[in-house]
Amino acid sequence: MPADRAPTRIQRKNRAAILEAALDVFSSHGFRGSTVDKIAKAAGLSKPNLLYYFPSKEAIFNELMSGLLDTWLDPLRALDPEGEPLDEILAYVQRKLQMSRDFPRESRLYANEIVQGAPRLHGVIAADLKVLVEEKAQLLQDWMDAGRINRAHPKHLLFSIWSLTQHYADFDAQVRTLMGEEDPFHAAPQYLETLYRRMLTPKS
Amino acid sequence: MPADRAPTRIQRKNRAAILEAALDVFSSHGFRGSTVDKIAKAAGLSKPNLLYYFPSKEAIFNELMSGLLDTWLDPLRALDPEGEPLDEILAYVQRKLQMSRDFPRESRLYANEIVQGAPRLHGVIAADLKVLVEEKAQLLQDWMDAGRINRAHPKHLLFSIWSLTQHYADFDAQVRTLMGEEDPFHAAPQYLETLYRRMLTPKS
DNA sequence: CAATGATTTGACCAACTGGTCAAACTCACG
DNA sequence: CGTGAGTTTGACCAGTTGGTCAAATCATTG
Question: I need a surface site. Which of A187, B67, B197, B204 has the fewest CB within 10 A?
């Protein structure tokens, strides 16, 4: 595929279809468990045709991942130092929960990678994510020092928000089996709101 | 391998070595990402030799899984209806956290399966786990109705305990990168204790 | 409507993988 | 120490998989 010139209509359509199909396949089988052929079929293309648009399976995966990571961190970036601390945190929790509901495949794709030791992600985590986490952990610490929210280990607080919200996407198979008819996302917002409100509302 | 008679010394040793190696390999690459050869080498055997002890890759996996599940649910089974509610729950949280620290590979093996839709686990989850969860959710509900702990959706309460504790094992790669030198398991017990104490201690 | 570049595909390849098998080797025991 | 059961392995096989390539088809535009 001509790499340098502007993408044609067909290129845009097919590359988008491939990435969409790849998200589906990768997120439900992991990298090793996914085959180029499965992705191609899901995108409505033949295998050689898919490989005309991306040089390799790994290239598809990488493009998917780097595209994902930005979106994934947006809610945390939006944590506003100028806002009311408790409201900011509660809003962050709800945003993350919504992402688990609206983009479960993205969450599972990410989870798949991390669980397996993040072999294809170490760089990004160590760079972008770490910087952002340090910044926001400091912000949380400042809020605690000012007595505006209860004290708690800032990083563990962030971890807890991630794990609680992503759990509904990542462990969806288990959650739905155990909840039966009831939609997990019905009670979850209230549950998490209560949890963090009780956890963080200053005693005084 | 002669199936019916009592296992020889060599059989016991090699089967144990294989399961140990398989836990290592499966938990860090998933089922599809693991090869029989990798497991065999990790166990110090040749591939045909490994297949002398287990009829197939799937058989190794199944034996590993069914052995794991029992241990995995023990902490929840131990939730005692006769105990002091808050203490029982806090103890459960700490037991689960300890399992994440002491058996992270088992946790990741399980996570790997669930994230990918539990293709090899649906039966067990729908059966054993569901029954146990219904029972313990009812117990939590009773404690809430009696005003002995704060109200909260019982199943979401259980989910939150699982996700918060297993996160330290399943997302170990991310957690360790972000925490640097600091051992995640140093502050985690205190953090979770505080969280659930504030969440569940009755207001009155 | 050429003709040129973009797109698609069938045929193919080499590496890998799960699994088989007969032959060789080792061990426990009489 | 011999013998039969238990154990190990090299060679092999068939199916899958990531990826290549030349030839064929299609779309765009001068």
Answer: B204
CA of B31 to C1' of D19 (A): 24
Are A33 and B32 in contact by the 8 Å Cβ rule? The answer is yes
- DSSP per-residue codes, B40-80: HHHHT--HHHHHHHSS-HHHHHHHHHHHHHHHHHHHHHT--
The whole-model pTM stands at 0.94
Residue of chain A nearest B185, judged by CA positions: A156
pLDDT tens for each residue of chain B, 204 residues long:
766 777 888 899 999 999 999 999 999 999 999 999 999 999 999 999 999 999 999 999 999 998 888 899 999 999 999 999 999 999 999 999 999 999 999 999 999 999 999 877 777 777 889 999 999 999 999 999 999 999 999 999 999 999 999 999 999 999 999 999 999 999 999 999 999 999 999 976
DSSP A54: S
> Å between A47 CA and D18 C1'?
10
The arithmetic mean of pLDDT across residues A177-201, rounded, is 97
Burial classification of residue A124, based on how many CB atoms lie within 10 Å of its CB (0-12 exposed, 13-18 middle, 19 or more buried): middle
Interface check for A164 against chain B (CB to CB < 8 A): the answer is yes
Q: Are A130 and B178 in contact (CB under 8 A)?
A: yes
Across the interface, whether the CB atoms of A28 and B126 are under 8 A apart is answered no
For nucleic chain C, which protein residues have CB less than 7 Å from any of its atoms?
A 1-2, 5, 8, 10-11, 14, 45-49, 52; B 9, 34-37, 47-48, 51, 55-58
Q: Which of residues 32-51 of B touch A (CB under 8 A)?
A: 32-33
Residue A9: partners with Cβ closer than 8 Å, 6 or more residues away: none
Spatial distance between the Cα atoms of A149 and A93, rounded to a whole number of angstroms: 15
Task: Record the tokens describing residue A124, joined without a space.
Answer: 């990004």
